[in-house]
Design brief:
The complex is a heterodimer of chains A (384) and B (341). With 384 residues, chain A is mainly alpha-helical. Chain A is built from 14 helices and no strands. Chain A starts with 11 loop residues before the first helix and ends in a 41-residue tail after the last helix. Chain B is mainly alpha-helical and 341 residues long. Classes of the chains: A mainly alpha (384), B mainly alpha (341).
């Protein structure tokens, strides 16, 4: 975290020292990204292809140490890992890239799942893939609807409001008979088989291949966004919203986009989840899930999509691999979150350094009690 | 693993109705006084918990997300007191000194549990972050982690089931005292509302009249200047957490009297609502916490009378969202440093 302190208060020597420290740290560790970039392009492509192929074949390989003893490995991969990784990717857009702390993210997951449920089982019988796309669109609209009024708030206030919205979504699903109330929605359609890919109760490998493809597609689209104008705007907003606004970034618009895109990915995860499990209950979408999702993103490394993937995988996988902690997992995740915030707030895979990108953790601005007014509310510059 | 976030105290609320329309004014009128009194009682508890948020926010600009679990531990303090005294085996209701002793031990243990938890939280979770000059959101994530860890420590290593207080054998808090319209006001209603008012007056005295209270106001106003003028800021922050914890402990004691049951996740929903109350009144403002708490209790109970009990929590969350969007400074919109009470 070689943050260059603001020049007006800090003497130049200190600036230099910080830079030197940063440089040594950069050389010492955190160098995976750099080593990777140093490889020749062909080698990178080959390694990536092999890695992807291995990932696709994971349920067939069923590797000895990694595989879970108590549960079917393929089912774990398809039913838990894929939704968690997708969710972590989506949440990473909102929290990691744009710096908007969203504690109600499970709400969008729920919207996606319920959309598929309503469209393929409860009130209509649309084809699954069509329902999936509609679910994504609906989630996106929800993201925009919830985002528009709340994005004026900053930091912890936004967190609480989104938490409230997440709960409102869940409680509404629980209270409206139209959405199945507390019995949820059952016999949701499965995706139709595509060639050799089959989606049935026992055949989880198809789901894994499909899910992994969704993940790769999402990663690809998000990385396109990240390097585009939108991604740069998000970085600017995250680093210093007021400065971004002054430099002419329409902050409100881009924050709204971050919310909507994050929500769309969350909805996709929910749709996949509903298609895999075929039955959803309101209690699947409680606030603790939101916190678990956040734990995944923070654990992996805020703002780094590979970090998000790793975090999502770990949060989904570890409790199943170590079944004996399963009931205590929330406890351990809580502890891990606390300890990590003290010793490694940037996560396991921090955002990549160098190339003029943002360094260190994203959220170092807005120190407690400093540069925001009392309520963390943007008073005049909220809208773009 | 089935988790129930629906609070069990929903069962205590006025009886449900079977009417198809979306708003039910007859029910609203019929249950008006019942909802008012139970709203005020609930609101008093919200207000006490809200103080924990408000005090810490006033001094540190930090939403102490784990305050709800501090409260939850307090409810287990009351339970521990009853276990220590071996009340479950005791037969006849107690009276006089024995009753007072039991209540006092419950209150003391609740306060010790909550206050201790709040102090530990500050020392273990927040102080290291302050030393590192961490950004705000790191505090918040750490607070979320602490909240999860505390609740789940009780749930995973203790019990996930609902713990009943064997309280009926000590004292019948549901004895009717007097009637308002046709609603019987019970001992517990009076206890909770009265107890909360007493604790809040005590707090107001503490903040306004004592040296420590002055220190708190000073740090709330301008921590840097206070430090220069010789205030031990870390000490004051610790005291602030402790006071917030004591208030949560008092709330836990009253909660134990009122609902006679608790559970490892009892804190979450109450915590969010208490936070709503704090925001409603104006976070950082002690009077605001009182008014906000009572108001929120009334709104959600009246709302429940109007729309049906299952919408109660939705109403509370909707109030939160609306307040933050329309008037984020709350009704009283002052911070601790500037406030007089």
């Amino acid at each position: 975290m070689n943050a260059t302190p603001s020049g007006d208060t800090t003497p130049k020597t200190v600036n230099k020292i910080t830079e030197l420290l940063g440089a040594t740290r950069r050389r010492k560790g955190l160098g995976i990204g750099e080593k990777w970039n140093a490889l020749p392009k062909q080698a990178r492509i080959c390694i990536a292809l092999v890695a992807v192929a291995l990932l696709y074949l994971l349920p067939w390989i069923n590797p000895p140490i990694i595989r879970t003893e108590d549960t079917d490995f393929a089912s774990l991969l398809a039913g838990t890992v894929v939704p968690y990784v997708l969710v972590a990717l989506g949440l990473n857009v909102v929290v990691g890239m744009a710096g908007l702390l969203d504690l109600g993210y499970v709400g969008f997951f729920a919207v996606g799942a319920y959309s598929v449920g309503v469209l393929t089982s409860k009130h209509a019988s649309l084809p699954w893939f069509l329902a999936m796309f509609i679910a994504i669109a609906i989630s996106m609209v929800f993201g925009a609807i919830l985002g528009a009024p709340t994005l004026r708030l900053r930091g912890d206030y936004l967190a609480i409001v989104t938490l409230g919205f997440g709960e409102i979504i869940r409680l509404s699903a629980q209270n409206f008979g139209w959405l199945g109330a507390s019995e949820g929605i059952s016999s949701i359609k499965r995706p139709p088989s595509i060639g050799p890919l089959k989606f049935t109760v026992l055949e989880n490998k198809g789901y894994w291949v499909f899910g992994l493809s969704l993940i790769l597609l999402t990663v690809f689209l998000i990385s396109l966004l990240e390097t585009s104008r939108v991604g740069r705007a998000w970085t600017a907003i995250r680093e210093d919203e007021d400065a971004a606004e002054l430099m002419g970034v329409p902050t409100f618009k881009f924050k709204l986009w971050a919310f909507a895109i994050g929500a769309a990915v969350g909805g996709l995860a929910g749709a996949f989840y509903a298609g895999k499990l075929n039955t959803i209950y309101p209690r699947d979408f409680e606030v603790q899930k939101s916190i678990l999702f956040l734990a995944a993103v923070v654990l992996g490394g805020l703002g780094n999509r590979w970090g998000a993937i790793l975090g999502g995988f770990l949060v989904a996988y570890l409790p199943e691999r170590f079944r004996f902690v399963s009931d205590k997992r929330y406890f351990f995740f809580g502890l891990v979150l606390m300890i990590m915030m003290i010793f490694r707030p940037q996560g396991l895979l921090p955002r990549r350094l160098g190339r003029g990108r943002a360094k260190g953790i994203d959220i170092r601005k807005h120190r407690a009690g400093e540069d925001e007014d009392d309520l963390g509310v943007v008073r005049s510059s909220g809208r773009g | 693993m089935v988790r129930h976030f629906r609070p069990f105290y929903v069962a205590v609320r006025a009886r449900p109705f079977k009417h198809r329309s979306c708003m039910n004014f007859t029910n609203f009128i019929n249950t008006f006084w019942a909802n008012t009194i139970s709203g005020l009682s609930l609101g008093a508890i919200y207000a006490l918990i809200a103080l924990g948020y408000t005090l810490v926010y006033g001094v540190l600009r930090l939403i102490n997300f784990a305050n709800s679990e501090v409260f939850m531990l307090g409810t287990f303090g009351s339970l521990a007191a009853l276990w220590i005294l071996g009340v479950p085996s005791a037969g006849a209701p107690k009276a006089g000194i024995a009753l007072l002793g039991t209540l006092a031990l419950m209150l003391v243990l609740s306060i010790l549990f909550s206050g201790g938890a709040a102090i530990l939280l500050e020392l273990l979770a927040y102080r290291p972050l302050r030393r590192r000059n961490s950004p705000r959101l790191v505090f918040l994530i750490s607070a979320i982690g602490a909240s999860l860890a505390i609740a789940e420590a009780v749930g995973a290593f203790g019990a996930r089931k609902r713990e009943e207080y064997p309280f009926g054998r000590v004292w019948n808090t549901r004895k009717n005292l007097f009637k308002i319209s046709d609603f019987d006001v019970q001992v517990r209603h009076v206890m909770v509302i009265g107890g909360a008012l007493i604790m809040m007056s005590g707090l107001a005295l503490f903040v306004n009249k004592t040296r420590l209270g002055r220190g708190m106001r000073a740090v709330a106003q301008d921590a840097e200047t206070a430090r220069i003028l010789g205030v031990n800021v870390d000490h004051v922050i610790l005291i602030t957490f402790a006071v917030g914890g004591v208030m949560a402990g008092g709330a836990a004691f009253l909660y134990a009297l009122f609902f006679e049951a608790t559970r490892y996740n009892a804190g979450f929903l109450l915590g969010v609502k208490a936070f709503t109350a704090a925001v409603l009144g104006g976070i950082g403002n002690i009077t605001g916490a009182l008014v906000g708490g009572l108001l929120l209790g009334l709104i959600e109970n009246w709302g429940a009378g109007l729309f049906g009990g299952q919408w109660k929590d939705v109403i509370a969350f909707a109030v939160l969202v609306l307040v933050l969007m329309v008037r984020p400074t709350g009704l009283f919109g002052e911070t601790l440093g500037r406030s007089r009470a």
